[in-house]
């Protein structure tokens, strides 16, 4: 029995030594402590046992915050996450590379920001192009919203941030609803969030076989967007739509095609050559005929889609200001910083 205890002590001591040697663990402990303080308040749990070095280090970090108010801890948590992201020169979520400015060609627009996409759609809707294609640069079609935006709280507070984000989202989705020409999505890799929900507003969706489609809204304390609360049940039925929008189910390209969200799936090795050859042939079709035919197909639902967009934005603004949403976002960051 004594030998087992000594072995346990030596193992625990070794783990504690490793913990101390890694300076990154100080930051992880700080993140852990601020997360606990902001969600549960001051530490009132019993101190872990003498040999439980890792949990003891976590407990000490939390206890050291004393009576720091939860709101202060929440702000410190946001500031710390924001500083780490800035120091890395990027964001927690991987983003495809691309030009920072809008560049327009016959079939391709490379864009990064919501406002730029809205502007690009407005211009593409008026120019002499026949159709408009969205695709990603690199391995991803789109990796979703940058969750570190939730750590950048303006002077007006969370309510102002949520209101501004809601108006931008409303404008963004409206640009898709009102777009007069055929819209094509060329999904070259994994897609997350609004890049998936907006697909219900596209006229064609082509995907590589390695693409996936994920809408983790409830996991992040949020709700549906991009008119998906209407288009997804209509496209794939209530049960399949609920799996995606309520229970965060990630679809493969084949599943998305079976459910009707994707038009056709292509082998990854020939994806670009097959798809772009086909799209160039579509671009040779009579433009007025395509635009008028699209309007005929879509016009009966335009008002309904605008109403759905308004309702989704209203709910999302409420969600973004809720403690549940903030805690879910912090849980996400906490999972990235586990010891």
Automatic annotation (TrEMBL):
InterPro entries: Acyl-CoA-binding_prot_CS, Acyl-CoA-binding_protein, Acyl-CoA-binding_sf, ClpP/crotonase-like_dom_sf, ECH/Chromodomain_protein, Enoyl-CoA_hydra/iso, Enoyl-CoA_hydra_C, FERM/acyl-CoA-bd_prot_sf. GO terms for cellular component: mitochondrion; peroxisome. The keyword Plastid does not apply. It holds the Pfam family ECH_1. It is found in: Peroxisome. Keywords: Isomerase, Peroxisome. SUPFAM superfamilies: Acyl-CoA binding protein, ClpP/crotonase. The keyword Isomerase applies. Its main location: other. Residues 5-90 form the ACB domain. GO terms for molecular function: delta(3)-delta(2)-enoyl-CoA isomerase activity; fatty-acyl-CoA binding. PANTHER family: ENOYL-COA DELTA ISOMERASE 2 (PTHR43684:SF1), PTHR43684. This is Enoyl-CoA delta isomerase 2. It comes from Neogobius melanostomus.
């Amino acid at each position: 029995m004594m030998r087992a205890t000594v072995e346990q002590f030596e193992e625990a001591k070794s783990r504690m030594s490793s913990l101390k040697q890694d300076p990154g663990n100080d930051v992880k402990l700080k993140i852990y402590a601020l997360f606990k303080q902001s969600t549960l308040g001051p530490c009132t749990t019993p101190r872990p046992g003498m040999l439980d070095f890792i949990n003891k280090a976590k407990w000490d970090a939390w206890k050291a915050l004393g009576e720091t108010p939860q709101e202060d801890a929440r702000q410190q948590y946001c500031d710390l996450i924001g500083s780490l992201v800035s120091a890395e020169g990027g964001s927690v979520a991987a983003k495809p590379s691309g030009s920072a400015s809008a560049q327009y060609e016959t079939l391709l627009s490379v864009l990064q920001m919501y406002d730029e996409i809205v502007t690009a759609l407005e211009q593409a809707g008026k120019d002499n192009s026949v159709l408009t294609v969205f695709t990603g640069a690199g391995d991803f079609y789109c990796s979703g919203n940058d969750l570190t935006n939730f750590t950048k709280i303006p002077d007006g507070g969370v309510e102002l941030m949520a209101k501004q984000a809601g108006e931008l989202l409303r404008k963004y989705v409206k640009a898709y609803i009102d777009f007069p020409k055929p819209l094509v999505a060329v999904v070259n890799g994994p897609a997350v969030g609004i890049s998936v929900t907006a697909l219900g507003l596209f006229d064609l969706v082509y995907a590589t076989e390695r693409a996936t489609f994920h809408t983790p809204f409830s996991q992040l304390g949020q709700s549906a967007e991009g008119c998906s609360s209407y288009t997804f049940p209509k496209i794939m039925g209530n049960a399949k739509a609920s799996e995606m929008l309520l229970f965060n189910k990630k679809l493969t390209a084949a599943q998305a095609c079976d459910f009707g969200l994707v038009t056709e799936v292509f082998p990854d090795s020939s994806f670009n050559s097959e798809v772009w050859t086909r799209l160039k042939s579509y671009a040779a079709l009579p433009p007025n005929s395509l635009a008028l035919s699209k309007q005929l197909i879509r016009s009966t639902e335009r008002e309904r889609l605008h109403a759905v967009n308004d309702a989704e934005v209203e709910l999302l603004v409420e969600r973004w200001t809720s403690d549940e949403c903030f805690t879910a976002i912090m849980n996400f960051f906490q999972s990235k910083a586990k010891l």
